UniProtKB/TrEMBL annotation:
InterPro entries: Di-copper_centre_dom_sf, Tyrosinase/Hemocyanin, Tyrosinase_Cu-bd. It comes from Polytolypa hystricis (strain UAMH7299). This is Tyrosinase copper-binding domain-containing protein. PANTHER family: TYROSINASE FAMILY MEMBER, TYROSINASE-LIKE PROTEIN TYR-1-RELATED. Gene3D superfamilies: Di-copper center containing domain from catechol oxidase. Residues 105-122, 280-291 form the Tyrosinase copper-binding domain. It comes from the Eukaryota. GO terms for molecular function: metal ion binding; oxidoreductase activity.
Length: 362
């Protein structure tokens, strides 16, 4: 009897204690989370507004371009032992993209990582280069009707844009981007004398060269129109949405993501280099619009889609043979460019950690 009551009482006490602890813990967690969330939301009462490139005033366009040039000239923080080819703050970000290429593409956190990466770039331009505006986006759907308009996009303007195509370079490789029209050095605009050092691919040793572009109006017409955009944002859940956006690795199976990269970079341009593509400042214009596509999709059902995340942790591991799916707690890094975050921190563009919005959505 005595023993029974002793053992009978112990679990009771334990249960009481555990109940107490769990109430305390969950209250603490919820309060902490709500507290953090509220204070973060309170901190984001005045989001900066991202706008389409052609809607900026000429003065705003020039302000942005000179901030990018400032970032390109600002001494970098990456040690030479890590990347001998990296010189500038701009290249600090290219380095981290190159280092992580195989971990951040064709995975569930592809869009979260690039949303964050673009916000880190935007923050760099604002805090280190005195830029007052928000990161602009490039709505390519405005430039593909008809595809022959592609090279005339205001984004390629020689004065109020990023400069245009490279001269045509002969090639008939089996892996050429269909419809390519350039391949040489960018011959006009603010980045005509830019020196690219990182890449090609994962080479961090330093290979000084010009910025190349190899525009493909055909590819743009095929993958960057409203049809493809609507197809992408009409997907019912994040897993399907992000896969349609990703597309496959072949040129016949591209999504919006590859569409923007290969319509600008073609075969020979930096934008077509999966590793070193952030070398072309247009990268951030394209990825900001992809982020806007994601936010357009989220905004159609915010209640569910602010927390909807899935997709493999490992490159193209859609069957989860190597690891599981990404969750909100999945940790992400941009190296020395910012403190690590979790996917959760990037789900809401007005959540507090991030604090920006778009002037219009799809
Ligand atoms: Cu990328």
């Amino acid at each position: 009897m005595a023993q029974m009551s002793r053992f009978g009482k112990l679990p009771q006490l334990l249960i009481l204690l555990l109940l107490h602890l769990s109430v305390f813990a969950s209250a603490g967690t919820i309060a902490g989370r709500n507290g953090a969330k509220n204070s973060r939301q309170a901190a984001c009462t005045n989001p900066i507004i991202r706008k389409e490139w052609r809607t900026l005033t000429q003065e705003e366009q020039l302000d942005y371009l000179s901030a990018v040039k400032c970032f390109l000239e600002k001494p970098g923080l990456t040690p030479a032992s890590v990347a001998p080819g990296a010189v500038s703050r701009y290249e600090d970000l290219v380095v981290t993209h190159i280092q992580q290429t195989m971990d951040i593409h064709f995975v569930g956190h592809f869009l979260p990582w690039h949303r964050w990466f673009t916000a880190v770039y935007e923050k760099g331009l604002r805090e280190e280069c005195g830029y007052k505006g928000a990161q602009p986006y490039w709505d390519w759907t405005l430039d593909v009707n008809p595809p022959s308009n592609w090279a005339k996009s205001p984004v390629f303007d020689p004065v109020y844009g990023f400069g245009g195509n490279g001269a045509f370079v002969e090639s008939n490789g089996p892996n050429d981007v269909p419809g390519r029209t350039g391949g040489g050095c960018v011959a006009d605009g603010p980045f005509k004398d830019m020196v690219i050092r990182l890449g090609p691919m994962d080479d961090l040793s330093g290979n000084p060269r010009c910025l190349h572009r190899d525009l493909s109006p055909y590819f743009a017409g095929r993958y960057l129109g409203m049809n493809q955009t609507i197809l992408t944002i009409s997907q019912p859940d994040f897993g399907q949405f992000t896969r349609v956006n990703d597309g496959g690795p072949s040129f016949d199976d591209s999504g919006l993501h590859g569409g923007g990269h290969y319509s600008v970079g073609g075969t020979f341009g930096e934008m077509g280099d999966l590793y070193a593509s952030p070398s072309d400042p247009i990268f951030y214009m394209h990825h900001t619009n992809l982020d806007r596509v994601w936010w357009s999709w989220q905004s159609r059902d915010l209640q569910n889609r602010l927390t909807d995340i899935s997709g493999p942790q490992m490159l193209m591991d859609y069957e989860n043979l190597q690891a599981g799916n990404v969750t909100l707690d999945f940790k992400m890094s941009v190296g020395l460019n910012a403190e690590d975050v979790t996917v959760r921190d990037t789900m809401d563009i007005r959540g507090g950690y991030l604090c920006y919005d778009y002037d219009s959505l799809y």
